[in-house]
Amino acid sequence: MKKDNSLMKTTLIGIICAVIIVAAVVILLKAGKSEKKTALEPLTKYTVGEDQDENVSKNETANKYLVFEDAEGEKYTLYGEDYMANLAEDRFIVVNGSSLSFFADGQEVHIADSVISCTISNDGGVVAFVVPTSNDKVYVGTLYIYNTVTGEAEKINENIFVSTTNSIQLSPSGDAVAYTANYDEEEYTYDCCIYKNGKEEVLGQNRDILALSDNADYVYYNIEDPDNYSSIFAVYTEKNGEVILSEAFYNRFYLNLDYSECVYYMGKESDETEALYISRDGSEGELYLENSDDLDISSLVSHVNSVLDVESF
């Protein structure tokens, strides 16, 4: 007798269709999350000025204020000694003593106290900050990343080393953060770490990261020699590995928007005409301009690093 397979075929087709639908939904959800992370809604843009309370006695410390003013002239005055803006200048972190807050659209939100280092991503969606782990070593702390949209903070590492040269760095969208950890006071060594996708990776020792792109595809850093007090400028990519750009570097460089290109000075600033060199996609540096004065920096945005509002140099 011939078997009737119509029901089996119908069931199989239904299962395949269900799998396709579920896969499509997952892809759409991932795309939605990615879009939400990289394309934040534009908020009110502000210019920032400073003010100081002069109505105090000589024995008192004058309070410092930051005045945020929008295009219509509406002003918001906050206690603050310093601030940092995202590239669009519509999201800010404000430092008042050791207290850190986030300001946007006329609202200030307290983030943390006892902060010893902080930074904000280029899009303003993420803030990274460090608070001391103990009272014994104020330069060793715990690193957190704070989502300015959800208001949630995530602990990353409890053994962060902070100094004038060792600072935390965020990628433009904040999806990766770089820092130094595990400082050895006797050997003067420390680990250069990158945190992304929920995992920590060690790039190497005694490397001070100056900038890193989204997903840490491009990482720019100084290789420090504590014995000779010298720095070597380098870039790391998965394709090319570590590429030396300059044997004598003084942290003077420009980045394009996605950090895939870096224009830099080869040596220390002097009275003589200086040339500029460029590294593209993690490649070795090559001469870009004989005279650095010829570089158009009209779109320069002063942030954590000097970013030019260009897709490519």
Give a description of the structure.
By secondary structure, the protein is mainly beta. It is 11% helix and 45% strand. The protein contains one helix and 25 strands. It has one helix spanning 6-38, and strands spanning 47-52, 64-69, 75-79, 82-85, 92-96, 99-104, 107-112, 117-120, 126-132, 140-147, 153-161, 169-170, 176-184, 189-196, 199-205, 207-212, 219-225, 230-237, 241-246, 253-255, 261-265, 276-280, 286-289, 300-302, 306-308. The strands form seven sheets. The chain has a four-stranded antiparallel beta sheet with strand order 4-5-6-7, with no helix packed on it. A four-stranded antiparallel beta sheet has the order 8-9-10-11, with no helix packed on it. A four-stranded antiparallel beta sheet has the order 12-13-14-15, with no helix packed on it. A hairpin with a 2-residue loop joins strand 14 (189-196) and strand 15 (199-205). The radius of gyration is 24 Å and the shape is globular. 31% of the residues are buried.
Using brief descriptors, characterize the structure shown.
25 strands; 1 helix; 4-stranded antiparallel sheet; 313 residues; globular
In short:
The chain is mainly β. The chain is built from one helix and 25 strands.
Residue-averaged pLDDT: 83
Unreliable stretches covering 5 or more consecutive residues = 21-38, 56-61
Written as H for each helix and E for each strand, in order along the chain, the element string is HEEEEEEEEEEEEEEEEEEEEEEEEE
Strand share of the residues? over 45%
Q: Could you tell me how far the N terminus lies from the C terminus, measured between alpha carbons in angstroms?
A: 76 Å
Q: Trace the largest sheet across and list its strands.
A: 4-5-6-7
Radius of gyration: 24 Å
Main pleated-sheet profile = 4 strands, antiparallel
Number of strands: 25
